[in-house]
Design goal:
mainly alpha, 4 helices, 3-stranded mixed β-sheet, 93 residues
């Protein structure tokens, strides 16, 4: 499994911002369930650039610490950016 996860997250000035925003808001407001978590992972997966292998990328998303996960979601909501090198395992790329 990869030790590092890197995201390429579009900012609020790139096309599709409202679609991404709507999707994240819908996903985070669902009742807690394994299916809801799978939906979040499925949403995030296309934005994972490292690891390139999709199975490894899915595992890396599932292994993210809570604060990194929150940072990534906040970045989709325009509430912050994923730092270039967070000192953890995720970073913007």
């Amino acid at each position: 499994m990869a030790d590092e996860i890197r995201f390429k997250i579009p900012d609020e000035n790139e096309p599709g911002y409202l679609r991404r925003y709507r999707t994240v808001v819908g996903l985070i407001n669902q009742p807690f369930s394994p299916e809801a978590l799978d939906g979040l992972v499925d949403f995030l997966l296309p934005f994972v650039k490292v690891p390139e292998d999709r199975t490894e990328a899915r595992e890396a998303v599932l292994d993210m610490p809570q604060e990194e996960y929150r940072e990534v979601l906040r970045s989709f909501l325009g509430m912050g950016k994923v730092p270039p090198n967070s000192g953890g395992s995720s970073a913007a790329g």
